[in-house]
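Researcher: Can you fold this with fe (iii) ion in place?
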Amino acid sequence: AADPRLKQILAVLTKHLHAAIKEIEPTQDEWFAAIKFLTDTGHMCNSWRQEFILLSDVLGVTMLVDSINHRRPSGATPNTILGPFYVEGSPHYRNGENICLDGKGEPALVRGRVVDVQGRPVAGATVEVWQTNNDGFYDVQQKGIQPENNLRGTFSSEVDGSYWFQTVKPRYYPIPYDGPVGKMLQAVDRHPNRAAHLHFIVSAPGYERVITHIFTPDCPYLAEDAVFGVKRDLVATFDKVDDQHLATEYGMPSPFLLVN
Ligand code: DHB
Ligand code: FE
């Protein structure tokens, strides 16, 4: 049976692709290079590397699709990119525990609150976090080098919605750039770096899930994130803490607002 939605999609894509080709006027060689690029991109896809997602990310399409599908009431915490390094079922920690298992980097305390859009605390919300180590790699990129589950964990919000944990200050790091997408970025003089961030998924029964980051305010790539994931509301405050073990503190710029 014919699929009317697919028919519509193909018609729109064809219209805009033809318009692009008319404007670009590619040579035969350029068009073959384009087909080769897509072929190479497909060949770079396997269980741990999805080069097409990377392509979607660096072209800003991932963020665009997300913004269409996750319109939030004003004041609610915005979503941003999930990225390829989320692992379901990370270890459970109690509030205050340390997720940094390799001891490298600048110690940091992260704390925030989970509240609903009316500002009421959400107790028992699941707060999943993950970030790179101080060398700019996720644990899953360095199996056997980093401790397993380094810098990822699952927390639960307290009765007042609060959660807090110890970690290290995130650093900027490059998205994988040893493939066709990396070559493309190089060819147009674009750097592969993501603004330093800490990933969050905050969820609670009966509420819309928030997939987001907090960004460090002083990262040199804050204004030019390789995958366009930065939103103003996601840039955290950053204060010194008067404790010899906790040099810095990150507070969520605003509480996580879950939509019900
Ligand atoms: C992330 C990494 C990527 O390689 C990407 O394309 C998008 C996001 C990340 O970990 O945040
Ligand atoms: Fe990341």
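Model: Folded with fe (iii) ion in place. The chain has a mean pLDDT of 91.
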